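Title: Prediction job returns without error message
Component: structure pipeline
Severity: low
Priority: P3
Assignee: unassigned

Description:
Job completed but the reporter wants confirmation the result is attached to the right record. Sequence as submitted:
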Amino acid sequence: MKKHVPFTVAGIAALACVGWLAARHAEHVMLEKSIDSFRQTLGPDTSFTYKKAWPGLLGRSVKFTALVFRQGQQSVTADDAEISKVSTTGDEARRIGHLVFHKFQFTDTSGNLRLDDLSLDGVTLPSKGDEKQGTPPQALEIKHVDARKLHGFIASMQSDFTASSLKVDDYGNDEASHLDAKDLRLATSVAPQRQITASAILLDGMDLAGLYKSYTTNAPYKPLDGVRDIQVDALSIEGTSPLLRVARLTSHATHTEALEKEVSAVQGLELWPAVPNLSFLPALGYDHFRGALVLNLTHDYKAGKLHIDTFSLEAPDMGRLTLDGDFSEASTLAMLSASAADMQVISMNLSYRDRGLIPKMIANFASTRGTTPQDYITSLRNSMAPEGSDPKAPLPQFASYLANPGNGPLTMTVHPPQPVPLMAIAATLSMLPTSPQLAQQLGLTLHAP
């Protein structure tokens, strides 16, 4: 019996060797098949090379080193990559279940993007479509993106941007996407040089693919129906000196084809004199503006009207300004920028409660004219409310308020017969001392306590 043992062991070893060789051959065949399937997924106009390839666990994926994709002027490289669940037939054509990259880089004429690690799930690659076969073009779709240590360059803006991490869900045409980014920084090298940073940005419910298309092709961005949320933490914008800081910005909107309701808030808002129209701050004794902002509005698309329920700007050491009314259709961004001057005012109510700004302004105006604040106020009252004038008229009311700003809020109402640009209203107010009849043309009333 014992003399048969060596033959039995040798037979088992030979069988094991044959099995190992057969498994290796099958593995190699599956590997080549997987790579060939992946090449078909990329299409004939794409170059795909690598230094080494081997199967992943149970042959369900393919791993590569020194991976390189090239398509036109675009290229993708990675030190290491793993690709799994590639489909090339049926409705799932050009779909890849899972991709993982280490030391990833994307480059084209618009710039480049580098990441330490990149993981993508549910990727559908773009295609040009076939008019003859009635196949529509396919845009890029990604179910989930998880990236770490990003660094990119935008050629058109001559700008570098970085982020420590980025997560994206549901990226694709007309998809409500989710984005969560940490430790962002954007620096521009063209004049005026700017550095923008944020500790975190959260976007939910926006069509990020549509937003990217709008940015790259200048096509208008169309908001999706549904709910949209934005949150930005520790936002900072700097040039050669600080310009803006925000502790937290939040915005919640509900959009339909007929209207959009939006509520936004800016907490811990700081603005420096280098910001346009704020150069007067040092003359009033302020090193910069500190405050908070709340905006509650409704875009009525059918009526072509913007209704502001509440616009509130509050600075503890200056004052509180609130506004509501109806305006011609305008974007929220336009309302908070210089473009607001072109907004057509249908009706507007404004209230201002002073917390220290008015006395400083009066003291500054008096100083530049070589007089005292009290004498300056007296001269204003004499010019705005001469003897015999109607004390309820706008100018006498304004003069009364300047003399006692601490008594309560100054309120203003504007109801012009026809919509008037906001800038025209501001110009008309400056002309009231010489042309008080203009107040009636604007439907302007002022009330001081």
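Comment from assignee: result matches the submitted record. Helices lie at 5-42, 208-217, 332-335, 357-368, 373-384, 394-403, 422-431, 438-442.
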